[in-house]
Each structure stands twice: as C-alpha cells, then as structure tokens.
Hints:
Layout: E1 3-4, H1 7-27, E2 33-39, H2 43-59, E3 62-68, H3 74-86, E4 92-95, H4 105-109, H5 123-131, H6 140-151, E5 160-164, H7 171-180, E6 184-188, H8 195-200, E7 204-207, E8 225-228, E9 232-233, E10 239-240, H9 245-248, E11 254-255, H10 266-283
Parallel strand pairs: 1-11, 2-3, 2-4, 5-6, 5-7, 7-8, 8-11
Antiparallel strand pairs: 9-10
Helix pairs in contact: 1-10, 2-10, 6-7, 6-10
Amino acid sequence: MAILMKGAPVAxxxxxxxxxxxxxxxxxxxxxxxxLVRVGxxxxxxxxxxxxxxxxxxxxxxxxxxxxxxxxxxxxxxAALRDLNEDRTVHGVLLFRPLPKHMDDARVxxxxxxxxxxxxxxxxxxxxxFTGSGVxxxxxxxxxxMEILDYYGAQLEGARAVVLGRSLVVGKPVSQLLMAxxxxxxxxxxxxxxLKEELRRADIIVAAAGSRGSVTIxxxxxxxxxxxxxxxxxxxxxxxxxxxxxxxxxFVSAITPVPGGVGAVTTSVLASHTVAxxxxxxxxxx
Length: 286
C-alpha cells in the first residue's frame, strides 16, 4: 500500500513557519497584508477567497477585499491594481482569474508589480522562475507540489521526474522548480508519443493535465511517487484527480489524494508568500 501524501500536515508545517515569521514582523511594526481582487461573483472564486482569508487570519496575515462588478471595465481593474502597487501597506495581491471575456488577461495581470505577485501570474514572476533570478513568486499550486515532495522526503536530486501538463499555472513552473533541485525533468502532454513509456520510466510523476484518467495502472510502475494536481468530477459528482487513484495506489510507493492533497496546501503557500513579500520589503527599509 502506498504512502498517502495528505496535504493537511504539510499545510500545518507551513502555517507554523509563517505564523512565527508573521509574529516577528508584527513585533517590528510590519503587518503583512494580502489584497484579494475579484471581478464578479464566481462561486469558485468566492469559495477560495473565503478559504484564503481564513488561512491568512489563522497565521496573522491581514486581508483586504477589492471586489469589482462583472461589468467593470478593464481600465477600472488596472487602476485598482496600480493603486495596490503603490500602497505600502499591502504586501501581496491575489488576482482571481479567469477574468471576464471583455478584459485582456495579459495586459491586466502584467500591471501587477512582481514583488506583490504572490501567485506567480505576471510574466516577470514566471521569468524569475525560469532564470532563477528570485524575482516574484512561483504559482501557489506549483510551490505546493514542491512542499509536499519535501515534507514526505521524496529524493529529488538526480531523480527522473515527468510532469504531465504544460500550463503556466502548474506544468511549466513546477518543471523549473524540479530542475532547480537537480531533478531530470521531462514535460509531457496529450500529444506526447509513447506517453505510457515516458511515465513508466519516471521516479516522480506530477499529473497536471486537467483530465480525469490521464494516469492509469498501465502508466505506472512500483516505487514511483505521484503528485496528482488534477481537479475533475466523475460521473457520480465526486471530486477526483487526473490519476485513477483506486487502480494506481496499490502499485506505487506514494501518492497524493484528491481531494485532500495539493489543494489543501495552496492557501498556506499563499499566506507564506505574502509574509515573505512583507519581510523582503521590510529588509529593504521600504
């Protein structure tokens, strides 16, 4: 039976570190603050917003909500982001996406200052991951994958890792984070030839294709570590990942559940990024 890499203890460990850092900053007169910027009333956004606020409150991070109507103009949103860039009391900004169709996503997200981009959505932040410059922060989901692997003691140095998925939210950034830890990384996708063989050669699989059943028993081998980032719904309305968990779990050495895996860690990473941004600003005397 595989080790079940649950997200809850990983989140708790991150929260403990964040709480200590936050307490120290507050003792120095710095109150780490996260602004959550939402356009409209999308149910998923509202749910995550509440979860993020609850997590931030638990570790001592203040939150501020900026909510625009669904019909708000692109210029209104950009103006709000520019105001937050200049606000010295705000250290991190989370912009909920996707944006309404009448807005230019690239133009809007790149308005945000990389030093406040705590979910890695700007091109400058993503460029920082690829160059190792330290500019900005990795997307919270990608960082959560790394936190889980570290917490459960996965050997990354020299490991063969396969990332299934090439999105800017998970696939591409997590591949860079793995390479920075000296893993040998292959990025695969739905059009990869001999996908089954590529996955079976891996020591670590990060499944982030966004499609249920992307990884089945025929794709895995004994001893593998699997991180399932997928969030899908099965025919019974249950939340499931990209991995066929029931079939795969008995054959691998470790696997994350869905739900209760990667998703349980993201708000903790978000809070930790906000505190890190506050600490960096304070260290510069700003």
